[in-house]
Amino acid sequence: MGTYGDAFNAAIAAELRAERGRNKVTIDSLVAATGLSKSAVLNYLNNKRDIPTPAFVELCHALGVSPKLVFERAEEAIEQG
Question: Where does the UniProt annotation place the signal sequence (predicted)?
Answer without folding.
Answer: none
